[in-house]
Amino acid sequence: MAGGTIVMNLINEGLPVPEVVIGLKRAGLATEESDNGSRVIGAMTTLSTLTGDSDPLISQAARACGGWAIRNMATIGGNLFAPTPSGDLSVALLALDSSLRISSQDETRVLSLADFYASGRVTGDHELVTAIAIPDVRRTTRFVKYGRKAGPTPSVVTVAVSLAWEGATIETARIAVGAMAPHPTRAERAEGLLVGNRLSSDLIDEVGAVVGSDLAGTTDAVASAWYRKKMAALHVRRLLQDIERGDGER
Amino acid sequence: MTKTTVTFMLGDRETEVLVEPLTTLQSVLRDHIGHTGAKDGCRQGGCGSCTVLVDGEPHVSCLLPVEDVAGRRVDTVETQTPVEGLNRIQQAFLEHNAMQCGYCTPGFIMVTTALLDRDPSPDRDEIIEAIGGNVCRCTGYQPILAAIEAAAGAGR
């Protein structure tokens, strides 16, 4: 158990206390280091620590999770396992092409966050996610968490956009979305439309439409899939429009 | 399940409890120790009525296994109330009618305590962000904001 904000919720709802519970707060997993052009952030780093991060995508996404008390307890590692529509920080991590360091007694393996989600967030019984690695790449990023109210709230849709440029042309595009699938997911066909092109209002409209049609959305007490699909399209468009209006970001 | 002993500081007082594993700090405070200032609201960490401070930082006690406060300092509205009268924050809440039913109030007071310890002069946006995890169903929040601003002012 990391911060406990997910597990203790389940225990309060009646999940039987497991035979063995390992608390990770004193495991020394809250440090950060640099490795070969990547930031490697310990899995027990709290969301509170990350609200002050120098990367605006990370600080905004961390700030979007819960309230002050929750952020003091919740961790970047735990957030990877948050059930949809939660996991706003993980949406940002997905847009940043993050990968996980998964450790066991004998070795540490690396798994891209995208593959981790695609595999159903499965790790071996003998394994632990110990760190999250984020490549240090120059990008233009935007983030939005849209909820039913201002302040802490479960997400209707969370969007993180990350673009890398070749001059005025987009070289790499990442559109990561939360609450649109059982886990944070990328709108890959929409990303493909951006690559090799400059931003224009026609292109942005097309990208939004593809996001809305490709992503299935989820239905829960917060919102319907129908509404989420519309909001995902809208907010992707708005973030791209904001980038298009911006100056000197490249 | 075998019970476990956990020792922590409750305010200035060393406190030891014998509990089932993963007993929440909320339950320890309310049921074992009799400090009912931290309330039992949602048990999901969303309402903030159970907010206490651990080493000066706000935590939702409903999601905090008491094992995780071993060797640390817990502060509650009880540890923060002077022997006589009220502290500066409590006084400001009283003067600004920042309570109606009072159920959310200890949580707000604990967050305010941490906020003003970190930043004695927060602006309104900073206050709003700090209290974002605390829900009030009665006041509409304006009297609470006024009370927090007044408490900040009174501290200068």
Kindly describe this structure:
The complex is a heterodimer of chains A (250) and B (156). Chain A has 250 residues and is of the alpha+beta class. In chain A, 34% of the residues lie in helices and 24% in strands. In chain A, the strands form two sheets. In chain A, strands 1-2-5-3-4 form a five-stranded antiparallel beta sheet. Chain A has a four-stranded antiparallel beta sheet with strand order 6-7-8-9, with helices on both faces. By secondary structure, chain B is α+β, with helices and mostly antiparallel strands. Chain B is globular. At the A-B interface, helix 1 and helix 4 of A face strand 4 and helix 5 of B.
Following the backbone from N to C, one meets helices and strands of chain B in this order, namely EEHEEEHHHHH
From the alpha carbons, calculate the radius of gyration of chain B and give it in angstroms.
15 Å
Q: In percent terms, what proportion of residues of chain B is strand?
A: 15-25%
Helix content of chain B: 25-40%
Supply the number of helical segments of chain B: 6
- Low-confidence segments of chain A, given as residue ranges, are none
Percent of residues in beta strands of chain A? 15-25%
